[in-house]
Write a structure and sequence with these properties.
3 helices, 102 residues, 4-stranded antiparallel beta sheet, globular
Amino acid sequence: MPGELLPIVCNLDSLTDAERARRAELAALVRAGTLRVVENETGYSIHLRPGNDVLERAEELIALERRCCGFMSLTLRRDDAVLELSGREGTKAFIAAELDLL
């Protein structure tokens, strides 16, 4: 139905077993490259360690996350190495739970 909001759930079935494993690996690598997390009105800004390795992993993670978490907005600002995670009401709490920020 046009204009219908996607539920705030991560559909890991949209990924293969290998992609799920890679997603987990990438998430751990991006976490390891995180300098700080800043809360904003609709989500979080994850400030990453500058360098192509972390940014490339973040880009790959974004591609996988978009397939399983279509409700979420993910943007990588390469110029200042910031990964933006946001969305409509309820998304911020989901992100916080996934990032263990609660």
